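Case 153 in the screening queue. Each case pairs one protein sequence with one candidate compound; here the compound is dinuclear copper ion. For every case the pipeline is the same: read the inputs, emit a complex structure as C-alpha cells, and attach any notable structural observations.

Predict complex for case 153.
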Amino acid sequence: RLEKIWLTFGIAMLAVFLAVLGIGAFAMGMEPPGSHGTHAVDPVTVSSEPPFDTPGLVQIGENEYNAYVLAFAFGFSPVDMEVPRGARVHFYITSQDVVHGFSIPRTTVNLMAVPGEINHMTYTFDKPGEYLVLCNEYCGISHEQMATRIVVK
Ligand code: CUA
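Case 153 output:
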C-alpha cells in the first residue's frame, strides 16, 4: 500500500513539473513590446515563405506597423520604407546568408541580422526625416554599400 502512495505522489510531482515547463514555455513566447526577441527560422526557405516572401511594412494598427526586413549580401529588402510621423514600428530582421547588421543611427534601433533567427525590436519615429539604415557587421567586400532608408513624413 505504501508503494501505491509513493507512485501516486510521483505521478503528481511529474504532472506539476510538466505544468511548470508548459507555463515557462508559454511565458517565453510572450514578449513585452520593445524587447529584443529571437525566433528560429530556416534561412534557406525564409524568403519564399510568409512574411518574408513579401518583405516590407504591414499596418497592424493606427500608425503601427510590422516591418519585415531581409538582409543579404549586399543589401536589404525592401529597399526603402516610408511611414507617417509618430509611427510605431516593430522590426523583424533576418538574414539569408551571413550575419549582417540593421542599425539606424540617431535611434535606439540596432539589431543583428542572423541567418536562422528573427530578431525583433520596436521603435517609435517621433521626428520626421530621412533615416539611414546601415549594416554594422562586416559581411564582405561590399559591406560599406549595404544601406537602405526609412522616410518619416
Ligand atoms: Cu552586411 Cu555588412
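Case 153 observations:
- DSSP finds one helix and eleven strands in the chain.
- The longest strand covers residues 64-72.
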